[in-house]
């Protein structure tokens, strides 16, 4: 199955802004989440089949401190995912996890879990069941 890109700037944003002042993003910009607990980006991802899929978040964190986020699928119990320092705001990396999606529409919400807020979020790549490729950077 292919990897599908979902830009953060096209997702639902709560307490954050679309910006483009740091280079290296894909699409038309990235989301700068407010620096507080609870700011989030929520994507709606359409899956042809139920099964385990790879989620890869492309982000930048120009501070020294990690900015963990709670990842919730379809409103379920959140899983904490670490977003470490990337050293500079124009330096982008990915962090990934595998999760079960249902057939049809799925919501994937990434919520800041510390007072520093989340990292700058560029996009989410979703890699479907049976895919042996790595998610694209
Ligand atoms: C800086 C940076 C922003 C970033 C922010 C933050 O202001 O320019 O892109 O979002 O720090 O700490 O979250």
From TrEMBL:
Residue ranges, annotated region (Disordered): 110-137
Annotated ranges, domain CBM6: 4-127
Source domain of life: Bacteria
Stated name of the protein: Glucose/arabinose dehydrogenase
Organism: Nonomuraea endophytica
Full-protein interval shown: 159 to 295 of 803
